[in-house]
Amino acid sequence: MSRESVQAFFKTHAPDIEPVVLADSIATVAEAAQALGVQEGQIAKTLALKVGDERILVVMAGTERLDADFSHLRQFRVIL
Questions:
Q1: Of 70, 76, 67, 46, which Cα lies nearest the Cα of 58?
Q2: How far apart are CA 41 and CA 46, in angstroms?
Q3: Can you tell me the distance from the alpha carbon of 58 to that of 75, in angstroms, rounded to the nearest whole number?
Q4: Overall number of domains in the chain
Q5: Which whole-number Å values give the CA distances from 12 to 7, 9, 44, in the listed order?
Q6: Which member of 27, 47, 78, 79 lies 3.0 to 4.6 Å from 58 by CB, making a disulfide possible if both were Cys?
């Protein structure tokens, strides 16, 4: 997904939200928090997973971790 497509989505579906574009790398939660001057728990991270034949996106706080057996996903009725 390109930056332009994200900006177009927000312009159409959430015009009151202005995406933040940073020049520096924000590949990690720590880098994003430092660049934005916030706590790591205030960063939302996205994990793309393949579960069986399905693909899902998980958005969670930057300080959260998935269990090794992905048991966190069971609360969302994802059967592994």
A1: 46
A2: 13
A3: 12
A4: 1
A5: 9, 5, 22
A6: 47
Entry field: residues in the chain: 80
The CATH number for 44's domain is 3.90.960.10
Q: How many Cα atoms occupy the beta-carbon half-sphere of 19 within 13 Å?
A: 15
pLDDT in tens, 16-41: 988 788 887 788 999 999 999 999 99
Look up the domain containing 43 and give its range. Answer: 3-76
pLDDT surpasses 70 at 1: no
Query: How deeply is 72 buried, as exposed, middle or buried, from its count of CB atoms within 10 A (0-12, 13-18, 19+)?
Result: middle
Per-residue pLDDT at 31: 92
